[in-house]
Design goal:
The complex is a heterodimer of chains A (about 725) and B (about 150). By secondary structure, chain A is an alpha+beta fold. Chain A contains 18 helices and 30 strands. Helices cover about 30% and strands about 25% of the residues of chain A. In chain A, strand 17 (about 355-360) and strand 18 form a beta hairpin. Chain B is α+β, with helices and mostly antiparallel strands. Chain B has a 5-stranded mixed beta sheet, sandwiched between helices. In chain B, helix 3 (about 85-90) crosses helix 6 (about 135-150). The longest helix of chain B has 14 residues, at about 100-115. Chain B starts with a strand and ends with a helix. The chains are: A alpha+beta (about 725), B alpha+beta (about 150). The interface between A and B is large, with 71 and 63 residues.
Chain lengths: ~725, ~150
């Protein structure tokens, strides 16, 4: 096995402006994602940059993404280092400045510095390869000029330019010490990029993540860990029903409590500011707020409303089309057999381990601020802080911190705005902390949904007609993953029917893929079982026109030794998904405790085709993570509302998967190819939901159609 | 004012009565490796050692550790050389990393009382510590490695 050690790049959060001289390469991404390049001369450190080479032979590479455990702070610099032929042991990674014009992800409209949707590596990949190749070309040109030899006689080794005929060598640091860069850096063509088979760093399993050493000794700094001199602490009472407003409070009495600095009323709640964290929490307990009535969410009863979704489905109103292909009506009428099933899912909470928090320090004049926070939306957070303060974005200095989990929750900046507004009111640095209970009560959830599926099958057993309607609140949050682009079904109607709830909804790891693939993959197994066709064989038929999809299915089946006997009481289930351009299949080995209604996943096998994988070791870790996250949401995670109020409050009643319930083994196999990189961090979620659902079906002959599969629901299905 | 030993040094901290050890360590003494996750003894992110015993700092009053030895992740080893810390790196355990101080401190207690734990021992001992990134299989592998390699 490959042994990863702590030897690797140093991670520094020091501003690059404090650099020690050398060469700075500035690459500005343009609209088409191609880098426009120029070089700042020696000693000119005032230019934003991707790469700096010090005379000490240290290569500093800037990471523009949020690091929330997914590993892109290592993967992005690794891409640059590969093409510039840097010595990874001499690379230092620094967080880039928050400036989307330079550091934005070219894949996003507006080039935001937004770490979401598993889009980071795939969005930056080509641009950073070109950036690295350009740096290498510039170093070669400088060395050629120095030695007065043709560039064609030069090659690079890690951090060294070598002159072949004379075997002379110059380190990158030595070049940086003398080189004067041309005003315009050399053009980079596709042919200047390495052949992937020559990669030393990309795809290298021995390269670990740069953030890990700091995460085993307590030195990694999350937003929660920031301390600023003179800092005070803030906790907030937020609207118990989304949309209600504080009308009045006993703020005057709270202000009189010893240690309380101030009580600040914001649009959606009341903030208690105190000298200490414990003081703020104690004072908040005494805070009484009168809330406005009549918020739209006030009548929301999640369980009753979910039952009501069926009426939305049965109403005459047409849905919004997502996919319309062929003629479903005719094909369904001509089908030999039709199948219909409804699937339900409840709201889910992100439950990132670090509750939301931010530190803000608005200056004495109130016209600028420093902000520290972990966020998935780096430039968005900076803009939100500026907007909250009513100043230009250049008045906000933003310090990104590690994120103790994101999962989609931290691409909103609500918690950052609260900290800025509170600091503005008290004119002191403020650490605003959400307790876990705050984080649940004022969460922003994966929406609950009803999925209505209908399929028509011809005499040969092929699916010829497919209808899928999702009903719920949240628009695009509901339709992600609802399509079946890799299944060969000629006639499809896929649509959305909306029903407003007034509660806060948000992207959640893999967004709608978790519940949509649960429904789709369950439907496929329902049809296969009725035809007495093996589920893997049936998916082979469905994907026979897509070699990559077929391969992930066959790989996962082979990994699990599909078709071979299992220990007594166990069975396998398979599911396939696409997510953020990657493809995956998962197989779960499951048993069911029929007395307690508990499902146990013993082993899980997953295949992944994500094109060129930059960090294979981390890709495996991300798949494991997605699988556990997906399984957790299948078993116990459930947010409910009564009268618009969230009914859960902490990990005792919002249970996430613990070690004892995690699979004993998770195996991941990456299918290697040189297709463009695809997203990985969310792909494990949908295969987990579908595979467990189908494994339960294989064990019991019955389908669970409401996730999560809580023991009471399992028992109900088993007794039916 | 409460005095205790924190990572081998004598410290004194002045907090309101009833203040959890967690806030004393993190916010008063500014050792932030110990994390706030739930405040209710449900997740294990705040695990520290008090006289060698893994203790939830969010659920322990400062006054209760007067005169005792408290060790946090920062004091587990001077240079990340504890076998668990080394194994955590080899197995590439952390993802977001927020729970990992607590995981390591809880695991260190296990190895101190049971140097060669079986898998079932590990699961039983560690089940109170939540990892939302789902690194459980790697945590187990790292504890087994640390037990093996020392």
């Amino acid at each position: 096995m490959t042994r990863i050690t702590s030897h690797g790049p140093e991670v520094s959060r020091r501003s690059f402006l404090a650099g020690v001289g050398g060469l700075t390469f500035s690459i500005a991404f343009l609209g088409d994602g191609a880098p426009a390049l120029n070089a700042a001369g020696k000693g000119d450190m005032g230019v934003t940059a991707w790469v700096r080479i010090g005379a000490d032979n240290v290569v500093t590479i800037f990471n523009p993404s949020a690091e929330m455990g997914q590993g892109s702070m290592t993967a992005l610099p690794l891409i640059v280092a590969e093409e510039m032929d840097a010595d990874w042991a001499r690379v230092r990674i620094e967080q880039s400045p928050v400036d989307a014009r330079v550091y934005g992800n070219p894949q996003f409209f507006g080039h935001q510095m937004l770490t979401v949707g598993s889009r980071t590596v795939q969005g930056y990949y080509t641009g950073l390869r070109k950036a690295g190749a350009q740096v290498r070309k510039a170093l070669l040109a400088a060395a050629a000029g120095h030695w007065k030899v043709p560039v064609s006689e030069l090659r690079t080794e890690p951090n060294v330019v070598v002159h072949g005929p004379t075997k002379r060598r110059l380190t990158y640091g030595e070049i940086a010490a003398f080189a004067k860069m041309p005003a315009k850096l050399p053009e980079v063509a596709e042919s200047d990029l390495k052949n992937p088979r020559d990669f030393r760093l990309i795809g290298n399993k021995a390269i670990g993540r740069a953030d890990i050493p700091a995460k085993v000794n307590g030195t990694a700094i999350y937003g929660m860990d920031v301390h600023v001199p003179g800092m005070v602490y803030a906790v907030m009472s937020r609207a118990p029903v989304h949309g209600s407003r504080p009308q009045s409070s006993n703020a005057a009495a709270i202000k009189a409590v010893a240690g309380v600095v101030d009580v600040v009323t914001l649009n959606h709640g009341v903030v208690v500011v105190a000298d200490t964290m414990e003081g703020a929490l104690a004072a908040r307990k005494k805070l009484m707020v009168e809330w406005s009535q009549g918020a739209r969410a006030a009548g929301f009863q999640s369980e009753k409303d979910l039952d009501g979704y069926r009426h939305v489905m049965d109403s005459a109103a047409a849905g919004d089309p997502v996919t319309s292909k062929g003629n479903v009506k005719n094909a369904m009428a001509a089908a030999v057999r039709t199948y219909q099933a409804d699937f339900y899912s409840d709201h889910a909470y992100h439950a990132q381990m670090e509750p939301l928090n931010a530190v803000a320090h608005v200056n004495a004049a109130g016209d600028g601020a420093e902000v520290w926070a972990g966020t998935q939306s780096l430039d968005g957070a900076r803009m939100s802080a500026a907007k909250a303060l009513g100043v230009g974005v250049d008045k906000i200095t933003f310090h990104p911190c590690y994120l103790g989990g994101g999962f989609g929750r931290r691409s909103w900046s609500d918690y950052i705005e609260e900290a800025v507004l509170t600091s503005k009111a008290v004119r002191r640095p403020v650490k605003l902390v959400w307790t876990r209970e705050d984080d649940v009560a004022y969460g922003a959830f994966r929406p609950m949904a009803l999925q209505c599926l209908k399929a028509g099958v011809d005499a040969a057993g092929n699916v010829v007609a497919w209808e899928h309607c999702v009903v719920g609140d949240g628009r695009g949050l509901l339709t992600s993953g609802i399509q079946i682009p890799f299944y060969n079904v000629p006639n499809q109607n896929i649509e959305l029917r909306g029903k407003s709830s007034g509660v806060r909804l948000k992207h959640w790891r893999a967004v709608g893929h978790g519940f949509n693939k649960f429904a789709i993959e369950s439907m496929i197994d329902l049809i296969a079982a009725d035809h007495k066709i093996d589920p893997v064989e049936y998916r082979r038929r469905l994907t026979r026109h897509s070699p990559r999809a077929l391969k992930v299915i066959e790989t996962a089946a082979a990994m699990a030794k599909w078709g071979t006997p299992r220990p007594a009481g166990r069975a396998l289930g398979i599911a396939f998904t696409e997510r953020s351009d990657s493809l995956s299949a998962g197989v779960a080995e499951v048993s069911v405790d029929r007395a307690k209604g508990r499902i146990r996943v013993h082993r899980f096998w997953a295949s992944l085709d994500a094109g060129q994988v930059v960090q294979p070791g981390n890709a495996v870790a991300q798949m494991e993570s997605g699988i556990v996250y997906g399984l957790s949401s299948m078993f116990s995670e459930r947010i409910t509302f009564e009268n618009g109020r969230v009914q859960q409050s902490n990990f005792h009643d919002y249970e996430v998967m613990r070690m004892a319930d995690a699979p004993e083994e998770i195996h991941v196999e990456i299918i290697r190819n040189n297709e463009p990189p695809a997203g990985i961090g969310e792909t494990g979620v949908p295969i987990a939901s579908g595979a467990v659902a189908n494994a339960f079906f294989a064990v019991t002959g019955r389908q669970l159609r409401h996730m999560p599969f809580t023991p009471d629901r399992v028992l109900t299905v088993l007794k039916a | 004012m409460t005095s205790f030993t924190l990572n081998g040094k004598q410290v004194s901290v002045k907090t309101a009565p009833g203040t959890p050890l967690l806030w004393a360590i993190r916010e008063h003494l500014k050792l932030t490796g110990t994390k706030y996750g739930c405040g209710a003894g449900l997740c294990g992110a705040c695990t520290v050692h008090v006289d060698g015993k893994a203790t939830l700092a969010c659920h322990t009053e400062v006054a209760a550790v007067a005169g005792k030895r408290v060790v946090t992740i920062e004091g587990l080893s001077p240079d990340s050389s504890h076998p668990l810390q080394k194994a955590w790196i080899v197995e590439q355990v952390p993802q977001c990393g927020y729970c990992q101080s607590g995981q390591i401190m809880k695991a260190a207690e296990l190895l101190a009382i049971n140097p060669k734990p079986r898998r079932a021992d590990i699961v039983r001992h560690m089940n109170g510590n939540i990892c939302r990134c789902g690194t459980y299989t790697r945590i187990i592998a790292a504890i087994e490695r640390a037990a093996r390699e020392g």
